[in-house]
Each structure stands twice: as structure tokens, then as C-alpha cells.
Amino acid sequence: MLALAAHALAEGHNKPEPKDLWQEPYDLASAWRPCSDHRDWRPSGGNNGYILVTANGGMNQQRVAVCNAVAVARLLNATLVIPRFLYSTVWRDSSQFSDIYQEDYFINYLTPDIRIVKELPEELQSLDLEAIGSVVTDADIPKESKPSFYLKHILPILIPNRVVHFLGFGNRLAFDPIPFQLQRLRCRCNFHALHFIPKIQETAALLLQRMRRHVHPGPLDRHLVGPYAETILKDKGSRPMKNSRYLSLHLRFEIDMVAHSLCDFGGGEEERRELEAYREIHFPALVQLKETTRLPSPAALRAEGLCPLTPEEAVLMLAALGFRRKTHIFVAGANIYGGSSRLSALNSLYPNLVTKESLLSATELEPFRNFSSQLAALDFIVCAASDAFAMTDSGSQLSSLVSGYRIYFGGGKMPTIRPNKRRLAAIFVKNSTIEWRIFEQRVRKAVRQTKHVQTRPVARSVYRYPRCRQCMCNADPFANFKH
């Protein structure tokens, strides 16, 4: 099938691309406008005590935790201490909040909503929080708990002890039901309060300049790189080149994702042994579950669309959709499982395929080495600013947050390709017998069905689906009831 794709790309260099390849359904998408920065309440005094949060996961999981913590602090009329980030054996990054986000901007922007401080008052720093019962772990809070849980179970700890420490805090606040203004605050935090630090913005602006090869900033640049959007204009005398738009592709194919999926990826017994060894170290609960429960087979998981797309499948999808061979593609994601050889299929079909590591010199990359969260921030910016964004796993946090950011600030001009992995799995199963023309038709149909404009489904993330009246405004009074 890769050979057929290569032939189709070589033959189709003069063939026009499908009209909707780089477009959203503009009329419907552009009707939505950001409005979560509108406030309709008085500041919270934070009088009930202090909330400490130590968030786990990578940069994107931590971002969600921060926004949820802001909402909980407002709910409990508590003062939020700038969140801390747990060191993970998977991500191996010691970065803290101020290494990724502008701390003072975050505090000042949210001052009309909640009180935020950089550390606990001196008289509370010596408290043994575990001894007094003020440490609350994820095990103590049901996933997606309602606000009533925090009022009933956390507030009685907070008021007498003056401090509550949420250890490992993540996806522990429900999206529905939740008060309107509290939901709006979460959107305000995610889309307006979290600005990357200048070091990240400056390098990201350099990446954008090199990806576009022209002098015009994109519509999201000022939100993503702030004042460094102007540096993209520095080569004012240069002549814009044709075909300077670019596609970004998030390949969620790191070993943690591959191992946790329990899928097979064609590597035989050696692959199975390697992934099982990784699970034993990083996912012991999953190993135990495998021993005690009959889990679906790898083939069944794939048929249900539960396996991440491989780099080979991703490139077949792009070719079938009609992206030309000369398309400039930015690949986000670190340490692709299988190494550079796994990317060779993409490079052979799309020679203008790059990563942040290939776009930056060793000197430019050096300040970010060993800081996976800061590198993830660069990926976030380049993906969010791209002319089109393709994901391979719609459940990944980076893909979810990037697609939500593009919806929120994109004005109906920032298309995102979300593959229906169940539909694609059925197509890929037949890839040894199917004709390229039929394969192309089926892939386009499967992907086009995901490009519709919809409001946020009940209980789904406002960070991923911001088209709801708490986050965005629509002049159509029936917009919130259309799907």
C-alpha cells in the first residue's frame, strides 16, 4: 500500500488538491467567537484557606490540572498557591510552573477571579499536612467529581486546617453539571491566563518562521508567541514563496502510548517482549489486570479503533486525503517508538517532513534538552499555529488541547483532521487487496465525517470542545442545540 501511495503522489503532482483539504466549514465555524474573558462576578477573597496542587503527567495533563485547580479554588473560596508539577519517571522533566508559563501574568490575569500566591504564608509552611489529614490524593477523589463533592468532603478539611494539598491532582472535576461562571473560569484559565514564557515563545516563533518560509504571521501567533509574533516579520524585504502553508501532524506513538494500548504493531516476538518489560516497570497495575482479567485481543482492540495509528498508517491517511508530495509537514511528538527508521516511510513519501529537532540547530535546542514539557510546549505552539492540523489519536491531551485552541481562536479558518480510527481500521485491514482509488475514497469519507461543526457534547471537555456558551458566543440563538 505504501508503494501505491508513493505512485499516487508521484503521479498527482499536477492534480488539484481537494477543495476542503485546508478548510473548515467556514460559515458554521466562524459564527463562534471567544468570550470566556467576559466576567460577571466579584473577586474571591480566598478566605477559607490555601490550596496546594501537585499535578502529575506531562505538560498537557498538567495544564488541565491547573485549570481545574483554579475552578476548585474559586468554588471553595480558597487562595491558590502556584501549582507544582510532579517529577515523572515517564516524562523525566523537573520543570515547574514558572519554567513553562508566565507566573506573574497568570496571577494578575486571574486576580478578578481568585487570589493566587507564590507560596504558603510562613506560619503554615511548617505544618505536617499528612499528619493533620490535609493531603488528598487522586485515590481520595472520584474521577470527574461534581462540585458538591468538594463542598461536602474537602471544605470541612480546608477550613479547620487552613491548607489542603491535592497530590497528583488531575482529571478530578466534572464538566457537567457545573455552575455557568465556574465553567467559564476554566475556559478563561486555559485560553487566556496561561502564556508560555519568553524563552519558549521566542524559539517557537523561530520554528514558525522556518516552517512558513514567508513573512506573514498567522492568526493565532499573537496568542501563542506574544510579542515574538513581530519577529516573524523581520525579513520584510524577502519575497514570499508559494505553497508556504504547512500541515502539522501529532504522531502519538511514543513507547508509553504503544505499551499501554496492548496492541500489536508488526514487530513480532521482540516487540512483545520489549513492551511487556516496559509495562512491568511503568504500568504494573495494567500487568496485574492482564493476569487476572480476560482482555480483548490486539486484533479486537484494533477493530474497535483503540490502537494508535502507526506512522505508516498516518502517512497513508495523508496521501489518501490528497496532500501533495511537496506538502511541508511538521511532526510533533518525541521519541517515536521504533526510532528514526519508523519515520522513513513518512520521509520517503513526504520529503518536506521536519521535526523541531531538525529545524533547530544544536545550540538553539540546547536550552530545552532534558525538559520534555518545554519541548512539548514548542510542539503545542507549532501545531496550534499550523494551516491544518492532523492527529493520529483523538484521546491524546496534546491533540485535544491543540484542536480546542484552534477552535477557540481560529475564527473558522483552522481545520483539524480527526481520524475515525474504527472506520480506518476496517479500511487498513483490506489494504493488501484494495485498489488505491477505492482506498482513497473510503479514507476521505471516513475523515470528512469528523470535520463537522458541533457544540460541546454533555460531560465532555471544554478544553477540547469550547463551542459552548460558557466559552464561546454564537449569534444564532439555536446554536447550542445543534449537533
From TrEMBL:
Keywords, alphabetical: Carbohydrate metabolism, Fucose metabolism, Glycoprotein, Glycosyltransferase, Membrane, Transferase, Transmembrane, Transmembrane helix
Pathway(s): Glycan metabolism
Pfam families (alphabetical): O-FucT (PF10250)
GO cellular component, one term: membrane
Main location: membrane
Location in the cell: Membrane
InterPro entries: FucosylTrfase_pln, GDP-Fuc_O-FucTrfase, GT106_glycosyltransferase
GO terms for MF: glycosyltransferase activity
Membrane-topology descriptor: Single-pass type II membrane protein
BP GO annotations: fucose metabolic process
Highest taxon in the source lineage: Eukaryota
Family the UniProt entry places it in: Belongs to the glycosyltransferase GT106 family.
PANTHER family: O-FUCOSYLTRANSFERASE 2, O-FUCOSYLTRANSFERASE 2-RELATED
Name of this chain's protein: O-fucosyltransferase family protein
Organism of origin: Punica granatum
Lineage: Eukaryota, Viridiplantae, Streptophyta, Embryophyta, Tracheophyta
